[in-house]
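Usage

Read records sequentially. Each one opens with the input sequence:
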Amino acid sequence: MRFAALLLTVCCVAGSALAQSKDFQEPCASHIQSAWPEEVRKAALADCNFSEEAHKTGAAGWVNAAAEDVAIRGVNGREQLRALFEKVYGKKGFQLLWYPTGGSVFGNYVVTTGNYERHVVDESSKETVTHGYYVTMWKKQKDGRYLFVWDDGE
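and closes with the structure output:
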């Protein structure tokens, strides 16, 4: 239930910026704590790999980190996910960065939580940067990898 509380207490701060905030300049994996349970660390590393790949490749990063049965924002499956995020990453100046700040194990699932930073540029070329929290649900695959099945933030 603490994840539901986290979703209800999301904080977004809008402003103008030319570069990534300090926390987002650090390597994502530097935010993973050695004291976290092993499965949380594994899922958090998958989260970091996902973040870095999505930053470099956009929609392809989302598809590569997603399980076949992914369900997010009214879409189901990898192909619908690809179509959604091709539109999102196709927007001028769009950039999304994130890193995990914790997580919990629930059987074959790990839920990671973290901070994100989103950059968008409007028609007048004004950049807006927002910060907030996210929650991602990861499912452990038969080969031991974690792929996400659900994600949300704001």
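Summary fields computed downstream for this record:
- Strands lie at 71-72, 75-76, 95-106, 109-121, 127-140, 146-153.
- The domain at 14-153 is CATH 3.10.450.50 (Nuclear Transport Factor 2; Chain: A,).
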